[in-house]
Hints:
The protein has 380 residues and is α/β, with parallel strands linked by helices. The protein is built from twelve helices and twelve strands. α3 runs parallel beside α4 (104-114), α3 crosses α7 and α9 packs parallel to α12 (357-379).
Amino acid sequence: xxxxxxRAVRAGLPPAKxxxxxxPGPAFAAHFHLPGDPAVAPYRYxxxxxxxxxxxxxxxxxxxxxxxxxxxxxxxxxxxATASVLFxxxxxxxxxxxxxxxxxxxxxLARRLEGFGVTVRPVATGxxxxxxxxxGARLLWIESPSNPGLDVCDIRDLAERARARGVLVAVxxxxxxxxxxRPLELGADFSVASGTKxxxxxxxVLLGYVVCRDAERAEEVRGWRQSVGAILGPMEAxxxxxxxATLQVRVDRQAAxxxxxxxxxxxxxxxxxVRHPGLPGDPAHxxxxxxxxxxxCVVSFTLPDRDFAERFLCALRLVDDxxxxxxxxxxxxxxxxxxxxxxxxxxxxMSVGLEDAEDLIADLERxxxGAREAGENARG
Length: 380
């Protein structure tokens, strides 16, 4: 089996042809020439399939499940991918277990299921309640590391417990990426992610995907995409596939810098609750080291209050005040501004980009100093 970097560079490429590009350009087509029986046609209509999707899907399956056959299905967004699993695998009368501390978009979507007669059980990531809530459930939704708190749960253990009870397991693998964690190898039925984040990595594409090893479940998810039209544009698919070639170098650099940033922040008196799975003192580090191969680019921490956090964000020069994470440019935001997350007003989620670690740390130090001094001057 090839290494992660080689796989990322080569995955999904067609056999080399003389004088042809290594990665064919996007296929812009609403329809295809369709003689004869449509049932045997590889491509029929733009909502059903596209050769540019196919190449990306082959690449994603190779990254999420190297060495074992799997099928990937791409979507217009991470939420489209999430919805495809929830709405095809859960029925009225079923129970779904979701993280109470996970992405608020997923929590909101799960609540919509309640209107269709589904029971939703929210439990904290890594808590004993995750396993206890499996009895009578149809689907366990895991987010590890969780967003934005960066808590981690034992995916393999939960998957084994779920399988013994006939419960399906889906893992949101957005933060870890397939190079940081392989949920299918840990026993999950579905690996789901927003490719908007680190996978494409440039902050210019929206997409999501689902990967599973069961062909029938993949077809259910694919059929949902076709029915609701949650389709990815060919240009977005091509851009994402192009970005995979640098995935390993990006996530390695970002994880190393994120650890350095976390260590620097932990030394600051104004900063509390620094979290990063790679930080040796992090509550989740031992478990994360057991099931993750890379620890991601996100660092979370808490500043004294809302005003201090706002002053800090305004003073940053190399870090954009923006949502999302995983991009080549560093971002940070006061997460409480959105509502829906159980975090304090001074809680910051930072996504570490590709800037030099020394420059980022210097910028953070300067912004913290400025925020503190401005607060002291205001108090007179």
